[in-house]
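Issue 218. Parser rejects a valid record. Input:
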Amino acid sequence: MKKIYFLLIVLFLIQSFTIAQQNKNLMDKVLTRSEDILKANIESHNTKKVSDTERTIVTTRILDNGYVLVSQMGQFWNGTDWDNSSLASFTYTPEGLKTEETNQYWNNGGWENSTRFLTTYYFNDLVSLYEELSWNGTGWENSFQYESFYNSDNRITEYNVYLWNGSGWDNMYKTIYTYYSSGNLETITDLYWDVTGWINSYKYSYQYNTNNDVSERLTEEWNQNIWKNSINDLYSYNSQNQLELNASFWWADSIWKESVEIYYEYDSFGNITDMLTKFWESEILGMQNKYHTINEYLPATSLKTIGENQEWNLQLMQWENTWRDIYNYNGENILENYLMDVWDGNNWISWSQDNYTYDENGNLDTLTAKNWDGSQWINSYRAFHSWSLVTSVENGHPLLSLGYSLEQNYPNPFNPNTVISYQLPVTGIVTLKVFDFLGNEIATLVNEEKPEGEYEVEFNGAGLTSGVYFYKLQVYAPERTGSFVVTKKMMLIK
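Output the parser choked on:
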């Protein structure tokens, strides 16, 4: 059992450090314009503060310029020409929330249905039901269903997974969330269905420091009808409130034994420049170097230019290169090319590359992937994307003419305070929230019923790093049909 615990930790960390190799696949899935493509890359290297990762589920692919992805068609290179491969189509609510995704594959000269995903929402944009269907040759059949419940603060409290048995839904999996009075996540409990009832599986308990950052996460496993220690993660932060060290321990019957340490260093803009991982090797060797990642960025931005990865040679006691990512941008700092090189023992050699083109609105048009065969670049995969402008964003929102408005924050850029103004023509339930560049909720500025009028709200970003943030206003007015939703961008510079 000890070996299994340790192996789970190792596999988890190995996975986290191989994400860099999968960046081009992540970017392909994100399917947005350049800064949203970079979001996948940045997310794969930035360590979140893990306090809000399981709180709120919102499904949308709307960009800050008001466009949503309508379709993506993929093709593979057969050696001489491009062959159709996959086609994904998307539909949305007027506010830009994705309600349907249909995936098809190319077969014998035509498109055939494959999978379909349906999403429904509560009025406040939170996902209530997510359904997965598969094509049986003549029609769509239910496959899985995912149901979410939230508390009055819009924090998720329960997440249920159901399996279709041919005539009805069977319980399969459940996750329950609890919170402290402060709103911070307290516990996550996983359960599975054993035909007659729910059985506990794993429980994750969180502790926080005075800055509301996670300081400890205890993982327990249900065994012989009691919770037993499994893994304990401790988090410490630097003076800028950035994660500095994550130390992981596994339970050895009666004591905790350290297994992994991850150290982080940042630049003045909050970008991770150095990430060092150490593993416990033995009682004699103790903690030893294992992985090392060095990142470089365009000056004064969060746009990564190079991500170089190394692995520790324990016999030679030295670092050895493994692979590196290279990002090239045009004059407007829009990603045009991504390269991946591997180390052959003496030199960096080309491995793969992705090239991007954009339409006149700045949205991703084509992605073309190529592989290096030792002497030349060979086509591998390409994808075409089509976009549509959402009518409920910025000046296109049909309710703007009725007196709703959300102004640009002032000042912008700001440090650390800024003011956000909005106007209501009628009484409505108002939420005003701030999100970071990765879509994580940073703050709730307003969450209550407000009468008709003009309002100003001050936002303080003192505890945040420099970068791009988004603020989103949503108003539900019982007197009127639908809800008003608009999102705007602001920049914090320290």
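Fixed in the parser; the record now loads. The two ends are 49 Å apart (CA to CA).
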